[in-house]
Amino acid sequence: MTEQDRKNQARRLSILLWDLNLTNKEAIEACGVNPRTLFRWLAGESPIPKSVMTMFELMLEKVAYDLADSK
User: Fold this and answer.
1) Within 10 A of 8 (CB to CB), how many other CB atoms are there?
2) What is the 3-state secondary structure (H, E, C) of 42-69?
3) Residue 57 to residue 1: CA distance in whole angstroms
């Protein structure tokens, strides 16, 4: 994975956390990782596991579904 790929992943994760209105603490708890790990992901220093990205993407889909279902 290139540095640019990691930066793109980091940007996507940051957007997901923003869209989900999650704090860093909540994201850390959801992933079960050390706080330093999340900060490395968000800085683009470490690749983000696909399972983590998938989890947050599914959480966002559920929020969108729940909002649409409540109308």
Assistant:
1) 13
2) HCCCCCCCHHHHHHHHHHHHHHHHHHHH
3) 21
The contacts of residue 63 (CB under 8 Å, 6+ apart) are 19, 20
The total of other beta-carbon atoms located within 10 Å of residue 9's CB is 21
**What percent of the chain clears pLDDT 70, i.e. is strictly above it?**
99
- Please tell me the pTM assigned to this model: 0.89
Distance CA 3, CA 9 (A): 10
Residue 37 has pLDDT above 80, yes or no: yes
User: How many domains are contained in the chain?
Assistant: 1
The domain in which residue 32 lies consists of: 3-69
What CATH number should be reported for the domain holding residue 13?
1.10.260
Distance of CA 50 to the CA centre of its chain: 10
